[in-house]
Amino acid sequence: MMVPVILGVFVVAFLLARVIPANPALMVVGLQSTAAEVHAEELALGLNLPLWLQMWHFLLAALHGNFGLSIVTGQPVLTDLAQRFPATVELTVASVVIAVAVALPLGILSALYKDSWIDWLAHVISLTGVSMPLFWLGLLLIMVFYSALHLVPAPLGDLGVLYAQPPPITHILVLDALLEGRWAVFWSSLRHLILPALALSTGTISVLMRMLRASMLDVLRHDYIRTARAKGASAWHVYMVHTLRNALVPVVTIFGLQLGYLLGGAVLVETVFNWPGVGSYVTSAILASDYAPVEVFALLSAVLYSVINLCVDVVNAAIDPRITYF
Fold first, then answer.
1. For 90-107, what is each residue's pLDDT tens digit?
2. Cβ-count burial of 86 within 10 angstroms (0-12 exposed, 13-18 middle, 19+ buried)?
């Protein structure tokens, strides 16, 4: 099912990009150009062809590894994405770490101490996180922690202007600085990372926490939990082995969907925080009517989302032996 899903996403993204009320040829030749120059550029870009033929040409070129040139940077789109993708991975991984570190303990405690103050606190955090738009939350965090409290640096990228990029080993800035032992660079990059990662993780925290709470409460009502208690198993063994493992199956499924949400949310967060990742690159491409980066990003997102869902199915089978696919 991955193939039709990927193709369907690409077709929708391709058509939506063409709906943007702007002319890429005009963006290339400039606003002061003549109609003849604009028409010549349209012919060069193939914009005079029917939409289905433009789509077919793009797919054929993509199958040969040619995803087109960006009219903004003048470089191949794959080159631009390869340069910016590590920054998006860094931001996404950091937000996943924050989400798991907050959602798992709060979800477990919320289920074990139902209707207590811990449960109500989890309710408030969940409702707040799922209700706030990412771009508004990002601006709010900037206003509080940068403008008012001066605890973090200005949201102008992933590293302070006084520091040089460390030699690329993993192409993840925080990790490269750590491996190189450049502690000043590591601290600067970490301080730049914390706010966008926190903003991006809020929705995932809310969803995972609520799902884990509901799943654990459901598992705690099963007969095998009462049997384990009756046999004298410790509370830690009952909760962490019998309850948590069985409760994780729906949570892992939702977590896989949330990874796709994080990739999409990164577009907004990177734009607000001027993060040099794929999201800000795609935003610039949309504003410039640069079709190729938008289409390639949609295709890449569909592939990653499908692969993540496939991995979730495999992990679920590993967690619960009752789940089989063959």
1. 888 899 899 889 988 888
2. buried
Among 55, 53, 47, 62, smallest CA distance to 11 is for 55
Residue located via tokens 């990927």:
6
What is the predicted pLDDT for the residue at 325? Answer: 63
Tokens of 257: 């969907």
Can you give the pLDDT at residue 26?
67
Residues facing residue 76 across a β-bridge: 69
The Cα 274–Cα 270 span in angstroms is 5
* Amino acid present at 60: L
Q: What average pLDDT does the structure give for the chain?
A: 82
- The fold for domain 83-275 equals MetI-like fold (1.10.3720)
Burial 275-308 (b: 16+ CB within 10 A, else e): bbbbbbbbbebbebbbbbbbbbbbbbbbeebbeb
Determine contact, residues 209/110, Cβ cutoff 8 Å: yes
Q: Residue 132: pLDDT above 70?
A: yes
CA distance 64 to 222: 54
Q: What pLDDT score does 196 carry?
A: 92
Q: How far is CA 303 from CA 59, 82, 128, 151, in A?
A: 15, 16, 31, 38
Give the tokens for residue 174. Answer: 């925080």
d(CA 280, CA 308): 23
